[in-house]
Design a protein that fits this description.
Elements (H helix, E strand, L loop, with lengths): L2 H10 L10 H18 L3 H16 L2 E7 L6 H11 L3 E9 L5 E9 L7 H25 L21 E2 L1
Antiparallel strand pairs: 1-3, 1-4, 2-3
């Protein structure tokens, strides 16, 4: 398959999901679409945006952000501070790790209400983190996307890079 036909097909896959009544089936369908985009070589920002959109739509009343690695240790704190100023609470923060356990980035989710994820939401978040790791590693392998990932220090490593992908 040529690069041009891959790009055309990948772009067409960014359409919003159809109406779906079965939550488990919808989640599986969304995950399958994202995996297809990854393996078709779709642009990384589009994949990560679609991933955040899937989380935001499934959980509701949340905003998801994927932050990539950088040397700025205050990046996460500034995003969290801005979210609090806007009246949002931290819903979930998850490290995105490579197969070698190197920190690739974080998935941060902020909500309108102060609560923690329910078990089915935890499962969705875990799946999203796995998909983000696959996308980031695939992109790194193909394009060498920004240096090497580092081993996390402490709980999150605190190191973020490029602007976050915000849905």
């Amino acid at each position: 398959m040529s690069d041009q036909s891959r790009t055309k097909r990948a772009a067409a896959e960014f359409r919003p999901p159809r109406q779906c009544n079965d939550t488990r089936r919808c989640q599986s369908l969304g995950e399958r679409q994202i995996l297809e985009l990854i393996f078709l070589g779709a642009p990384l920002p589009g994949i990560l945006k679609k991933l955040c959109m899937m989380i935001d739509l499934r959980i509701g009343n949340v905003v998801s952000i994927i932050s990539l690695l950088d040397g700025d240790q205050n990046h996460f704190c500034s995003i969290a501070r801005t979210a609090r100023q806007l009246g949002l609470d931290v819903f979930s923060v998850s490290a995105i790790l490579s197969r070698e356990e190197s920190l690739l980035g974080t998935l941060e989710i902020y909500g309108c209400d102060p609560r923690r994820p329910a078990p089915q939401e935890d499962h969705l978040i875990e799946s999203a983190v796995d998909l983000a790791a696959i996308a980031l590693q695939r992109h790194e392998a193909e394009d060498g996307f920004g240096g090497t990932a580092i081993k996390p220090k402490g709980r999150m490593g605190g190191l973020f890079e490029k602007p976050p992908f915000i849905n």
